[in-house]
Amino acid sequence: MHGLPPHTKLAAAFLFVLVVVSTPREAMWAFGVYAVLLASVAYHARVPAGFLLRRLLIEVPFVAFAVLMPFVAEGERVHVLGLSLSVNGLWGAWNVLAKGTLGVATSVLLAATTELRELLLGLQRLKLPPLLVQIASFMIRYGDVITDEMRRMRIARESRGFEAKGVRHWGVLAKSAGALFIRSYERGERVHLAMVSRGYAGTMPVIDEVTASGAQWRHALALPCAALVVCLLGWML
Fold it and tell me: Any idea where this protein resides (predicted)?
């Protein structure tokens, strides 16, 4: 998994998620098979279960939304433990939880086995619009720069005895945010001028030409192909 070309993994992840969302929600067993397939991928990629579960916490807001659906949805209702729940809401909650969890797990596995720079090369190889790839590249490259600037500003405030303790200190924090925006904007202008002076004309040069063999494509597409078989069985059974 770690050695596969990035564009093959991106294509496999996209196709797998597409198959998952195309599966009928009534085929509950199919989502269990999808989970087993992802667990197999995580095992062979040597991604620890704890790491995967911690990253899945990002979907907590969607879980909260799914929990509310049986209570607010309309239609036929059933009584469970003294609670009146909507049948459509229960199916909708299951649909959101199952497909959302599998999608997030797929993204986590992709990120755990592929470096950010490789992801950008994969997107470029898959012919994503160059402007979008460049925007993503700059966001990744200068995210750390902005974070470091925020850290220096925090240290400067603390060295002068400032400590945010309530609403009355929000004004200082707002001024710091404004100063950070101005500094970031000015830094962006300087970087753009430096790039133009070095011949930048709207496109970035391709340094690493990433290619994939037929065997690598077959290895990467094994997951979505297996999921497609499960999806078709889910529609037929």
Answer: Cell membrane
Only one residue has tokens 């997030």, namely 104
* Rounded-to-integer distance, Cα 35 and Cα 16, Å: 12
236: amino acid identity, one letter? M
Determine how many CB atoms are found less than 10 A away from the CB of residue 190.
10
What would the mean pLDDT of 163-169 be, rounded to a whole number?
78
Give the 3-state secondary structure of residue 206.
Answer: coil
What does the radius of gyration of the chain's CA atoms come to, in whole angstroms?
Answer: 24
DSSP state of 78: E
Amino acid at 2: H
Residue with tokens 């907590």: 60
Q: 86 by DSSP, 3-state: which?
A: strand
Long-range contacts of 87-94 (CB under 8 A, 24+ apart): 91/25, 91/26, 92/66, 93/66, 93/67, 93/69, 94/25, 94/28, 94/66
pTM (2 decimals)?
0.81
As a whole number of angstroms, the distance between CA 103 and CA 122 comes to 19
For 189, the token pair is 């202008």
Residues with Cβ within 8 Å of residue 10, at least 6 apart in sequence: 110, 119, 122, 123, 126
* Helix/strand/coil for 83: strand
In single-letter form, the type of residue at position 15 comes to: L
Per-residue pLDDT of 74-113, as tens digits, reads 878 888 777 788 888 899 999 999 999 999 999 999 999 9
Local structure of 79: helix, strand or coil: strand
